[in-house]
Known about the structure:
Layout: H1 3-31, H2 33-70
Amino acid sequence: MTDSDTISFIRRLDRQELWLVLRTQIAEYNHHRLLHLGFIFSLGIATSTLLCILVLNHASKQQYQQANAQLTSPVGFYIVWAS
């Protein structure tokens, strides 16, 4: 068996395996439709929640940077030791 024969054999096995996985997923969907729809719905909720957290985190970082730029140093920084 040459290298090209081996590669084509592996590709054929990969296609067969992919086809079996797809058929299994379709059969599962046909048997338990609400389960898959619930999973997709919960995945959407989790994704949107993560996106909201990331947006809020970015906005708060910008607000902290803006507040730090507007703050002045406390009086204690201007007191120096007189010798």
